[in-house]
Task: structure prediction
Amino acid sequence: MGRKGISAADLVALALKFYRPLRIKTSLWRPGFDAIGELVRLVKGVVGEGDVLVLSEKALSVAKGLVFDEASIKPSRLSQVYTCLLMRWIWGYLLGPICKLKPQTLSWIRGYMIKEGARHKQLAIRVGGPLEALKPSSEAGIDASNLPFSLVALPLNDAKAAAGEVRRRLMEEAGVDVTVVVVDSDRLYQHRRLDFALTSRRTSVKLGVYMGPLSLIVGRVFRGSFTPLATPLAVDGPPLNKWLLLGLAEVADRVRGFGAGRTAFDAARRLGAPVDKVTWSMLERVPHYPAVLFKLRRS
Result:
């Protein structure tokens, strides 16, 4: 730990000291696909006792059929006015600059698509409540990246149970007991010197305090005191030290990459299609790495 306290680099170094990451390339997981079966097949013979398997929540959600077509939502005039004021003005010209968001992020927010955004906000309120809709992105854990048309992935109903299901299948079919972690790339903000974090997602892991959009605001305004990290949502299996868990989640988030793009808009630009005209076949042309297997380094 440096003079400024715990950093992401410190936690990444800690994770890599004890584990060697192997990203797992899979097919594109569509709704109803046996993702766990494919994972077991790919890691069987490679995974061993003491290893850790880190999985993307979004990829698991899609495979479990937790997708929703936002085109089915008819945004009200009130929600469109609300979305315009919140995103283009409050986040675009007040909170965004205060939080020191990147210029390209501010540009995207100031040009936020009102009708489509209002649909997204209405769904966020339905899924996570009004507080979640105040976020500029990743509202209520809803994810539109790497999905076709107007589909979005909803958060897992029970990330802990999902991790347990993967662990159980690995024990039954591969004969090994590993720790399974489900993560989200949405940032938590770990205090650099104190043992607590501000989370924008509710998790089953005791990491800190859930504050919704305030986590982003406080974490970025006081960025000298907080370290942004990927969020571990659930763990099943032999327990992990908190700092090691945070390091593994961050390494996994970095090595998995972003598929076709970090956002639906990035994917559309890369694939050369309007954002609501991206298809499954287009997405299948892009490599997908929804899981990272961390092999325990043995002395």
